[in-house]
Write a structure and sequence with these properties.
Elements lengths: L21 H19 L19 H13 L4 H23 L7 H22 L6 H17 L2 H17 L16 H4 L3 H37 L9 H26 L7 H36 L4 H10 L2 H15 L13 H24 L5 H11 L8
Protein name: DUF418 domain-containing protein
Keywords: Membrane, Transmembrane, Transmembrane helix
InterPro entries: Bact_Transport_Assoc, DUF418
C-alpha cells in the first residue's frame, strides 16, 4: 500500500456502519428474542433433565410451550446467528478490500485479531456469568478459519459446512432419550457458592460448551459467507424471489424436522430406540435449514421496507438492537444470572417453563428499549465499543 514502508505500522480505522444492509441487523435483533427464549429454560433446575435440557415429565402449558420452542426456536436461533456471523466476516473482508483500508496488513490477519478480541470477551462472559457462551466460539472460529472465510473457494466452504454439520448432528443421537434425575445439567447453576460456581463454569465451558458450540456453528458460519457472496441480503429487492423460496423451504424444513422431538417433549410420542436416536439429528439438521430460512425472511422484510420508504417504529427498534447484538446478548446473561442460579436469587428452582420463557421475553424487550434509546442518543453498545477498541486500537474511528 502506498505510503507504507517495510516494518511500519499504520493504525487501522473501524469502518462506519451507516451503509450496512438492514436485513442482517433486523435478523440479529429478532434472533436475540429466540436466543432469550432458548436459553431461559436452561436455567430451570431441581426438576430433572429431559429432552434437550427441558425438565422431565412436562405437562399442560409447559408441554405445549416446549413443543412450540422445539419447532421454531431450539436449535434454530444459534444457526441463524452463525449464518449472520459468517455474513459479517465476509462483508468486513469485502469492504476492507474495496475501500483499500487494510493499512499494510492482510484482511485475514484483521479477521483473526477481531476473533481474538471476541474470544476474550466471550471467555470472560463464560467464566463470570454463563458457561453456555457462544461469543468465544465465534471468536475461535474466526481465528482458526480466517483464511477459509476470507478467501476460501465455494467448494471448500460447502465441504466445511457439510462435514461439520454432519458431525455435529451425530452429537444429537441421544437427545430424544435423555432422562436424568439430577438438579441441573450444569452444576454451576445449582451451587450456592459464587466461587464454586465460577470454577464449575470454567470447566463446563472449556471442556464442554466451547468445543461443541464451535463445531456446531462452523457450518452455519460457512453458509453465511456463501450467502454474503451471493448478495441476496445486500440487494433483497433484486433477489426477492430467491429469498421467498429459501424462507419457505428453510422454515418449513425446520418445523417438519422439529416435529418428532416436539412430540416426544410434549409426551405425545414415545419412540422406539431407532426412531428416538434419529429424532435428535433430524431436529439438529433441520435447525440449520431454519436458520437460513429466518435470514431469508429478514431479507424479504427489508425488501418490503425498501418499497415503503423504510422501517416503522418496531423495525427501527429491531435494527437498533441488531446493531448492538453483542451488548444485548451479554445483557441477557446478566439478567438471567441475577435471577435464576442458586448462588444468586435462586428463582430457577422448580420454575415452570412458561414462567422462564416469559422472563426471557421480558429481558429481550428491555434490551430492545435500551438499544432504541442508545440509537437515538447516537451511542454504540458498550460491548461493540470494546470489541472495536480491541480490534482496531483505542484511536479507531466509528460512526454511529
Amino acid at each position: 500500500m502506498s505510503g507504507t514502508t517495510p516494518g511500519s505500522v499504520r493504525r487501522v480505522r473501524a469502518l462506519p456502519v451507516a451503509r450496512r444492509s438492514p436485513a442482517p441487523d433486523l435478523a440479529r435483533g429478532a434472533a436475540l428474542l429466540l436466543i432469550a427464549v432458548a436459553n431461559a429454560h436452561t436455567f430451570v433446575h431441581d426438576r430433572g433433565i429431559g429432552v434437550r435440557g427441558y425438565p422431565q415429565d412436562l405437562a399442560g402449558a409447559d408441554a405445549v410451550l416446549a413443543a412450540v420452542q422445539l419447532l421454531l426456536v431450539d436449535g434454530r436461533a444459534y444457526p441463524l446467528f452463525g449464518v449472520l456471523f459468517g455474513y459479517g466476516i465476509a462483508m468486513l473482508a469485502r469492504r476492507r478490500t474495496e475501500w483499500g483500508q487494510i493499512a499494510g496488513e492482510p484482511v485475514v490477519a484483521l479477521v483473526r485479531r477481531r476473533g481474538a478480541a471476541l474470544f476474550g470477551i466471550g471467555s470472560a462472559h463464560a467464566i463470570l456469568l454463563w458457561s453456555g457462551d457462544i461469543a468465544a466460539a465465534y471468536g475461535l472460529l474466526a481465528i482458526l478459519l480466517a483464511g477459509l472465510l476470507v478467501r476460501g473457494s465455494t467448494v471448500a466452504l460447502v465441504s466445511t459446512a457439510v462435514g461439520t454439520i454432519a458431525v455435529s448432528c451425530l452429537l444429537y443421537l441421544p437427545v430424544a432419550t435423555t432422562s436424568a434425575d439430577v438438579a441441573s445439567g450444569t452444576p454451576s447453576t445449582v451451587t450456592d457458592s459464587a466461587t464454586a460456581a465460577a470454577t464449575a463454569r470454567f470447566g463446563e465451558w472449556l471442556f464442554g460448551f466451547l468445543p461443541i458450540n464451535a463445531l456446531a456453528l462452523a457450518g452455519a458460519v460457512a453458509i453465511g459467507v456463501l450467502l454474503a457472496r451471493a448478495g441476496w441480503l445486500d440487494d433483497p429487492v433484486r433477489y426477492r424471489r430467491q429469498l421467498a423460496r429459501t424462507a419457505a423451504a428453510g422454515i418449513g424444513a425446520g418445523v417438519l424436522g422439529g416435529l418428532p422431538l416436539a412430540l416426544v417433549a410434549a409426551g405425545i410420542w414415545a419412540p422406539g430406540t431407532a426412531a428416538g436416536l434419529l429424532a435428535g439429528p433430524v431436529q439438529a439438521l433441520s435447525g440449520y435449514a431454519a436458520g437460513v430460512g429466518y435470514a431469508a425472511a429478514a431479507g424479504l422484510i427489508a425488501a418490503r421496507w425498501a418499497g415503503r420508504g423504510g422501517p416503522g417504529p418496531l423495525g427501527a427498534a429491531l435494527l437498533a438492537t441488531g446493531q448492538r447484538s453483542l451488548s444485548a446478548y451479554l445483557a441477557q446473561s446478566i439478567a438471567f444470572v441475577a435471577l435464576f442460579p442458586a448462588w444468586t436469587l435462586g428463582l430457577g428452582s422448580g420454575l415452570p417453563v412458561w414462567a422462564a420463557t416469559l422472563c426471557g421475553v421480558g429481558v429481550w424487550a428491555v434490551t430492545v428499549l435500551v438499544a432504541t434509546a442508545s440509537d437515538r442518543a447516537g451511542l454504540r453498545g458498550p460491548a461493540e465499543t470494546l470489541l472495536r477498541a480491541l480490534t482496531y486500537g483505542r484511536g479507531a474511528r466509528s460512526a454511529a
